[in-house]
Amino acid sequence: MNVTRPREDGLRAHEYRWALPSVLLGDGGAGGRVRRSTRDWIVDTAMFLFACGLTFLSMVELDAQNQPVPLMAVEQVTGALSCVSVWLRRRWPVGLAVVLAVLSSYLELVGGAAVVALFTVAVHRPFKVSGPVTLLNLLTLAPYVVLRPQTDMERGWAAALGVAVVLTVFAWGIVVRARRQLVWSLRQRADGAAEEAKRLERERIAREMHDVLAHRISMLSLHAGALEFRPDAPAAEIARAAGAIRTNAHLALQDLREVIGVLRHSAPDGDEVVPDRPQPTLADLPALVEECRHAGMDVQLDQRVAGAPEGLGRNLYRIVQEALTNARKHAGAVPVRVVVAGERGKELSVEVSNPLWARQPARIPGRIPGAGAGLIGLTERAELAGGRLEHGATPQGEFVVRAWLPWPVETTREDDT
């Protein structure tokens, strides 16, 4: 059947994809309207001509046997109708195969169409259906050999030839069906792999947008909260906060434009290709800490390692960035300590800690809302890099985020990107 039929049955796009086995392999219902593609028309025409060719050869042999005129008339009429019925093999494959098998138990000129019908059932139906139909075709050989003996062939040899033809056609149909199932399975795997790649890319872009924008927006919220709750601040301080808001808003828009630019493809003429946005590394960590200090945070950086690969440094930078953003959201102006250490061939570790609040008031002015998605994203990032991440309160009254990332002895250019 044509692959457009599931849409006539009201299937949606995702249901249509999973309904393909029923349509292409014929395991679903039959009897509905058939809309043939160009390939279907070519195949059906070839099958019709094949059935007509076998019928013509049988008719030549039948004329040589000098059969009675009434029998010859019946043979010719049923032979012509059986050839025409081949066009119904897509709509009623099993019914057509059964009717032609029964007729072939005595009539000879329906043999060509019966062979085509049996092949169709073997291709488009599972063995639990095609097996009994094949058995019926084998059983109808017995009355045909007995009632219509061949003048130039013994009955035993005629029966053996008929069995060989039926089994050969059935086996051929099974092979074609198995090949179609294999092709469909490979296509499904390829589609699944493509969908998985798209999902992973969407998750990567979502993490990138969260890591970049959460940092900038938290800066905006921090300075805007200071202006809201300290309207009587000195003019110089208000101007500094307003300038910080303007700067971070501009940087947020710029970062958003760069991240969205990754989603763009080349132009239709292939002239424009948008490169990947520049990624921060471990060398950019002091600048991040200095930016947080300008925003009013008390951050101490203890960086005991340098020269880490770009990919490893980028993951560690994002972890520190998100940890500082969370500290700015939930811990206010408490001191934050960042310790980065590691050794090539072992691992690269980072620890971001800050004292817990002595008490949690019902409403803290300037607090930025958060749902914990950042920590979940950090854990996923660390796991994707082959490391691990822990976070939580310690008995010493601190909230600590610790991450360990593997640092192989030798890294390739691909690992560094």
What is the compact description of this entry?
By secondary structure, the chain is α+β, with helices and mostly antiparallel strands. The chain contains 14 helices and 5 strands. The longest helix is centred in the middle third of the chain and has 75 residues, at 155-229.
SSE blueprint and pairings:
Elements: H1 5-8, H2 13-18, H3 20-24, H4 38-63, H5 69-85, H6 93-103, H7 111-124, H8 127-139, H9 141-147, H10 155-229, H11 235-261, H12 285-294, E1 299-303, H13 310-330, E2 336-342, E3 347-355, H14 373-384, E4 388-393, E5 398-406
Parallel strand pairs: 1-2
Antiparallel strand pairs: 2-3, 3-5, 4-5
Helix pairs in contact: 4-5, 4-7, 5-7, 6-7, 6-8, 7-8, 7-10, 8-10, 9-10, 10-11, 10-13, 13-14
Write a structural description.
InterPro entries: HATPase_C_sf, Sensor_HK_TwoCompSys, Sig_transdc_His_kin_sub3_dim/P. Keywords: ATP-binding, Kinase, Membrane, Nucleotide-binding, Phosphoprotein, Transferase, Transmembrane, Transmembrane helix, Two-component regulatory system. The chain crosses the membrane at residues 41-60, 94-122, 129-146, 158-178. Pfam families: HisKA_3 (PF07730). The chain is α+β, with helices and mostly antiparallel strands and 417 residues long. The chain has 14 helices and 5 strands. It has helices at 5-8, 13-18, 20-24, 38-63, 69-85, 93-103, 111-124, 127-139, 141-147, 155-229, 235-261, 285-294, 310-330, 373-384, and strands at residues 299-303, 336-342, 347-355, 388-393, 398-406. A 5-stranded mixed beta sheet has the order 1-2-3-5-4, with helices on one face. A hairpin with a 4-residue loop joins strand 4 and strand 5 (398-406). Helix 4 (38-63) runs antiparallel to helix 7, helix 8 runs antiparallel to helix 10 (155-229) and helix 13 packs antiparallel against helix 14 (373-384). Mean pLDDT is 76; it is low at 1-30, 265-275, 358-367 and 412-417.
